[in-house]
Design a protein that fits this description.
Elements: E1 2-7, H1 14-30, E2 35-37, H2 51-55, H3 65-77, E3 80-82, E4 86-89, E5 96-103, E6 109-114, E7 120-122, E8 127-129, E9 142-145, E10 148-152, H4 161-167, E11 172-174, H5 181-199, E12 202-205, E13 222-225, E14 231-235, E15 240-245, H6 248-257
Parallel strand pairs: 1-2, 2-3, 10-11, 11-12
Antiparallel strand pairs: 1-15, 3-5, 4-5, 5-6, 7-8, 9-10, 12-13, 13-14
Helix pairs in contact: 1-3
């Protein structure tokens, strides 16, 4: 199965971001992709964290602009579409869920995962807390996308291996992200390859990758990684799409030759 990961440098204009995402989805489909994944916050990288509140949608509303674009693109292009993340309303005022919605080739929503682990840091001179605007999700999610069992996760979730263990075994781990430049440079590839190796699964990691209008710089390095930890495709920076063929025979061979998943005791 050929899969594609899209890298974007999203800004504060929702309409522009949606048009750019659709462009790259069409490009991926033209190159034969059957499953395509968009990055975290593909629809909006606002000038302030609270900007996402203004474009938040009700979950399951196929007529809302962001969800409509994703559903329509999946149906018109015949794709399994992992829709990065979008802000969806919660019952808490001033909070949204950072939700990854997956669409089947008929345009129907096949799964929704709400980011469970919220990023926070404080180095003494700078601080940031996603929890000021986001409400954490509360349940791991995996789905069957054609021949693939896919584990869903988002960005900071990558640092919590127990999330993937709870869903395994899976064939593909999805990690849409907007990693900061500093943490991405230090840990992004290291963590992605570790998750691939320890779960003996392919990893698809579409990312934000460049300097955004809000002044933030994201690491990029959108990757597709095989179950032995080999990087099959990588786009360091800027917008674009990378593709790779997921070989189920290769996956089975890795698990047969080194049956680590069968050796688990905990």
């Amino acid at each position: 199965m050929k899969v594609a990961a899209v890298q974007m440098v999203s800004g504060p204009d929702l309409a522009v971001n949606l048009a750019r995402a659709r462009h790259w989805l069409e490009e991926a489909a033209a190159q034969g992709a059957e499953l395509v994944a968009l990055p975290e916050y593909f629809c909006l990288m606002g000038l302030a964290d609270s900007d996402k509140l203004a474009v938040a949608e009700q979950g399951g509303d196929s007529h809302a602009p962001i969800q409509h674009m994703l559903s329509q693109a999946a149906a018109e292009l015949g794709l399994w579409l992992i829709g990065g993340t979008i802000p969806l309303h919660t019952v808490q005022a001033g909070r949204v869920r950072n939700a990854c919605c997956v669409y089947a080739p008929d345009g129907a929503e096949a799964a929704r995962y709400d980011k469970m682990h919220l990023f926070r840091f404080d180095n003494g001179s700078e601080s940031y807390d996603e929890g000021r605007v986001l409400e954490a999700g509360d349940a791991p999610v995996a789905l069957q996308a054609g021949p693939l069992r896919v584990a869903l996760s988002v960005c900071y979730d990558l640092r919590f291996p127990e999330l993937y263990r709870s869903l395994g075994p899976v064939d593909l781990i999805s990690v849409p992200a907007a990693f900061t430049y500093v943490t991405g440079q230090a840990h992004w590839e290291l963590l992605l390859r570790a998750r691939a190796v320890e779960n003996q699964a392919y990893v698809i990691a579409p990312a934000q990758g460049g300097l955004h209008q809000n002044g933030r710089r994201t690491w990029g390095h959108t990757m597709i990684i095989d179950p032995w930890g080999e990087v099959l495709a990588c786009l360091p920076e800027g917008e674009g799409v990378v593709l790779a063929e997921l070989d189920m025979a290769r996956l089975a061979a890795v698990r047969r030759q080194l049956p680590a998943l069968q050796h688990r005791r905990l």
